[in-house]
Amino acid sequence: MEKRQLIVAGNWKMHKNYEEGRDLAKDIVERLQPTQVTVVLATPFIHLNSINNIIKDISNLKLGAQNCHQEESGAYTGEVSAGMLQSVGVRYVIIGHSERREYFEESDELLAKKVDAVLAKGMRPIFCCGEKLDVREAGKHLQLVEDQMKKALFHLKPEQFKEVVIAYEPVWAIGTGKTASPEQAQEMHAHIRSLIAKKYKDEIASLTTILYGGSVKPDNAKEIFAKPDVDGGLIGGASLKAEDFVAIVNSF
Ligand code: PGA
After folding, report:
1. Span from the CA of 30 to the centroid of ligand 1 (angstroms)
2. Measuring CA to CA, how many Å separate 173 from each of 1, 176, 186?
């Protein structure tokens, strides 16, 4: 049987100036050993072209962006389209990170359009979902993630959905040092996979890569990645230090 792709994606957020970004990418390239894991560097826009030149000959190292606009082009001052990203070598685009949902008021309806825009240019969305603490405490986290998936993704045809990577990121675990326990991650990942199986086919569900994100560090990655439905991670803080990021890549 075909195996699920393992992915570790670094989300640099709004960190690193031009030179610092180049240095970090070079440091990661130097430390990375041959691996079965696909490694994605999701950098701020200003780095994309230069980092593409650093990583483009390394087959399992891919360029990522953190957002894009839903329209193809037009009078949208300050925005960047999926086609522009594709033209500088981007292969993966993070869509619906909780910080975009929270600070830029991105709704699942808007995210559905962004997912479409990314897929239309032959790139792969890394779609983020996850609950805030009050939702988990009310026991409604499974339902909330189900709603996010249905609204933003389940309009896709099966052949489109195959290109989607899911990242489960409990909002209370992002940048807080509080990770979900491996059991909490597994519960949600299994839930997400069962939703996909119900909507699409078992085969698509079993091949969908589902990442965990939220305070993943070198010292906790192994136990989280060991869970059967966890296929890698979306890494924030620890992706800014090459040594830590590569240690996480090596945690399978
Ligand atoms: P963190 O961020 O690893 O710093 O918690 C994860 C993310 O926001 O994707």
Report:
1. 23
2. 34, 6, 15
